[in-house]
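[Automated response] Your request has been received and processed.

Submitted sequence:
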Amino acid sequence: MALAIDANLPQADIVRIKRMIPHRYPFLLIDRVVNIELNRYAVGLKAVTVNEPHFEGHFPVIPVMPGVLIIEAMAQTSAVLVVETLGVIDQDLLVYFMSIDTAKFRNPVGPGDMLELHVTVIRGRGKIWKFRGEARVGDTLCAEAEFAAMILTQEEASAKG
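Generated structure:
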């Protein structure tokens, strides 16, 4: 079943995403975020292409997107949701993983796939947020995890360094 995009809900294209999170090529792993329900839910979209650098070695004959990058794409989607929820675009915030729990990889993701990253807020308070994420290609569940992250300004991150 195809993802239904609700045009009445906020969305973030690649230009807006770059204003929200600091990631850049080759580590910016989402192309668009749709169906943003503030403080609740969002769906990140990633068009998987053979031109991505990890496919050179993972794996040359049968390219498979590394599971850790799928979870990172979920986290980037979550960061966009948090920035949109808090209304803190253009503030150069950094998001750090605090935990990754119950990660499961169920089906491979490869070139030509449209990866959907469904993230749901479990808990969001101030700087610390917890999410449940699912990565899907169409109706197929490819990966899932619960993860927590901390949102910091660059100054706060430097002080911790």
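Summary generated for your ticket: The first strand starts at residue 32 and ends at 37. The longest helix spans residues 67-86.
If you did not submit this request, please reply to this message.
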